[in-house]
Amino acid sequence: MIQRNRGRFYDSEREVKDLIDEGHLEEKDNEGIEVPFFDFDSIIVATDNFSLANKLGRGGYGPVYKGKLQDGQLIAVKRLSSASKQGFREFKNEVILIAKLQHRNLVRLRGYCIKGEEKILLYEYMPNRSLDSFIFDREQGLLLDWQMRFDIIRGIARGMLYLHQDSRLRVIHRDLKTSNILLDKKMQPKISDFGLAKIFGGKETEGNSERLVGTYGYMAPESATKGSFSAKSDVFSFGVVLLEIISGKKNMGFYESEQISSLMGYAWRLWTEKRLLDLMDLSLCESCNMNQFTRSVHIGLLCVQDDPNDRPSMSNVVTMLGIETLPDPKQPTFYERRVPTNPASYSKLATSLQLDSIYESYEDGR
Q1: How far apart are CA 272 and CA 68, in angstroms?
Q2: What are the angstrom distances between the C-alpha of 154 and each of 149, 165, 172, 280, 324?
Q3: Do 191 and 301 contact (CB within 8 A), yes or no?
Q4: Which residues make up the CATH 3.30.200.20 domain(s) of the chain?
Q5: Of 19, 38, 60, 159, which one is least surrounded by beta carbons within 10 A?
Q6: DSSP assignments along 298-315, one per residue
Q7: Which helix (H) or strand (E) holds 63?
Q8: Mean pLDDT of the chain
Q9: What's the CATH superfamily of 13-124?
Q10: Residues in Cβ contact with 59 at an 8 Å cutoff, skipping those fewer than 6 apart
């Protein structure tokens, strides 16, 4: 048990892991967390008692509301559903990690609240919501020209590099996807949802989970089949996100032919046929920088290679986004299976795969 000293911050990997592993989280504990504890009544006032008028949407773990604090600051209030699979440990994981991680491309946590069964997270308010609401919507997608999309890709890459290498903690996100990328008023990307994240300490480079966690379609093959994860499994997820951003198509549920049932497979075929421009979202035709586009596809394919050792690090990705000469990718195996559209069948698939967030994503329309 950590002996708390008022005013002390817990910065090392071991100290933060111990803080997360403790079986409680109360107002008196916030000395080591660095974000304020809010009482439930103040959240009721801020959201007008969670009124429908303030409801922004429903994420995988519960509804999200717009709120306004007494000082006029706008916030997004995530109220975790009692039926959610995100338990207390995941909630505490998110509270502590986001408080410890400060970067322009990570979402900022403004506070948290626990009262009885209520578990609530207060984030900075993002007026443009999530990236998936733009790139997978024909009308909204028109608002994102090539330069904006390329800037979003670079911002996500810088945020992931910070998590893996540059922060005071080394963190593996484990659930990077387009719906977990939020956009501020300037359309700058902010990585969110750290409930499944893991801290790596010392000389650790990879780990294994007894259950498969993440979202199918973004999970690296080694994560989906063996439960193993590393910085390179995050790189795989980044590659999928990159391909989705530039194509406007979802990897999950993509279907081109009997031979090609994933966006990755489609991108690989276009690579081999030297028809990469066919992958482009049609709304980008007038604004696209062709060199940046083909380089982005190239990087995406490098990131989704089967062997983690073949994938670049996020440091290399950030560098490659600005250079012309890149190594050739190897063909991925496109491990994805077709997913049924019937909710009952989808739930059965999620159960068989023991995934933490696939079914919630389906219910949210993602």
Answers
A1: 52
A2: 9, 16, 18, 18, 16
A3: no
A4: 13-124
A5: 19
A6: HHHHHHT-SSGGGSPPHH
A7: strand 62-68
A8: 82
A9: Phosphorylase Kinase; domain 1 (3.30.200.20)
A10: 78, 179, 193, 360, 364
Residue 256 DSSP class: S
The answer to which of 29-38, 45-54, 137-146, 223-232 has the lowest mean pLDDT is 29-38
- With contact defined as beta carbons under 8 Å apart, do 356 and 85 qualify? yes
Residue 168 and residue 16: Cα distance in Å, rounded?
A: 11
Under a CB-based contact definition with an 8 Å cutoff, are residues 184 and 190 in contact? yes
pTM of the model: 0.83
Q: Report which secondary-structure segment, H or E, holds 153.
A: helix 146-161
Q: Note whether 56 and 64 are within 8 A (CB).
A: yes
Can you point out the beta strands (E) in 4-145?
A: 55-59, 62-68, 74-79, 109-115, 118-124
| Locus of tokens 């066919």 | 278
170-188 core/surface letters (b: 16 or more CB in 10 A; e: else): bbbbbbbbbbbbbbeeebb
Name which residue leads in pLDDT, 158 or 200.
Answer: 158
Tell me which fold the domain 132-363 belongs to. Answer: Transferase(Phosphotransferase); domain 1 (1.10.510)
pLDDT band per the 50, 70, 90 thresholds, residue 117: confident
CB 331 within 8 A of CB 259: no
Helices of type H across 163-289:
221-226, 231-247, 263-272
Catalytic annotation present for 175: yes
Q: Is the pLDDT of residue 326 over 90?
A: yes
CA distance 175 to 40: 29
Catalytic position from the list 29, 175, 193, 281? 175
Most confident of 155-159, 258-262, 332-336: 155-159
Residue 242's nearest CA partner among 288, 293, 186, 192 is 293
* pLDDT value for 363: 34
Domain with CATH 1.10.510.10 in the chain: 132-363
CA distance 95 to 9: 14
Cβ neighbour number for residue 102 with a 10 Å cutoff: 12
Q: Which residues, at least 6 apart from 157, have a Cβ–Cβ distance to it below 8 Å?
A: 238, 314, 317, 318, 321
